UniProtKB/TrEMBL annotation:
It comes from Purpureocillium lavendulum. This is ATP-dependent DNA helicase PIF1. It comes from the Eukaryota. The keyword Hydrolase applies. GO terms for molecular function: helicase activity. Keywords: ATP-binding, Helicase, Hydrolase, Nucleotide-binding.
């Protein structure tokens, strides 16, 4: 719940960008706001498994997520516009009570 007197943007829900942002609108949302987020239990399980195996940050670990990511139409539309072989690879995992995000906005780094 937002503190009294603050305005809550309906596009930003606790665990995801609002479902009213369609797959077609997702790339524009990402470009405008510099981030996109959505809870995904399958991704969380993959991160845990890769971390337990000691390969979460290694070359090729991002490819483990590709199938799961591409099943989400909004995420798929965002990823389609990027290089299929990124130079920087990293994994973010489930950490209850903490939130992580990726951004393309250099002022937020």
């Amino acid at each position: 719940m937002a503190p009294e007197g603050t305005t809550v943007d309906p596009l930003f829900e606790e665990s995801q960008v609002a479902p009213s942002v369609s797959a077609e609108e997702a790339p524009e949302f990402f470009e405008k706001h510099g981030f996109f987020y959505q809870t995904d239990s399958e991704i969380g399980r993959l991160v845990t498994r890769l971390d337990n195996d000691g390969v979460a940050g290694g070359p090729g670990s991002l490819t483990s997520f590709k199938e799961a990511l591409l099943t989400n139409p909004r995420v798929r539309k965002i990823l389609e516009s990027y290089d299929e072989h990124p130079a920087l690879w990293f994994s973010l995992g489930c950490d209850p009570g903490h939130y992580f995000a990726s951004t393309i906005d250099p002022t937020l780094i």
